[in-house]
Amino acid sequence: MIACAALYPCEQQPLAELACLAVHTDYLNAGHGETLLGAIETKAKRAGINKLVVLTTRTAHWFREHGFMSGNKSDLPARKKALYNYRRNSKVFYKPLD
Fold it and tell me: Is 60 exposed, middle or buried (0-12, 13-18, 19+ CB in 10 A)?
């Protein structure tokens, strides 16, 4: 496996969580993350989603470099807010989709 990602749409809102975006270390800096993010964004837009949210503990810089903005827990879907693990102290980012 080279890279993977998950898209979890909200049931009652036009937003989705981008989760588990990862690239195998042998393939870093080859554009696979960007390609996968582009495919996820296209899929989300086609599904009527206009905002992505993501939680990260280690790669905040990568998401900022790809158009995500710092957010807070209030940007998360209600179901995700209820499951938020405060011990991990994940940072929340969001990206509006045009």
Answer: middle
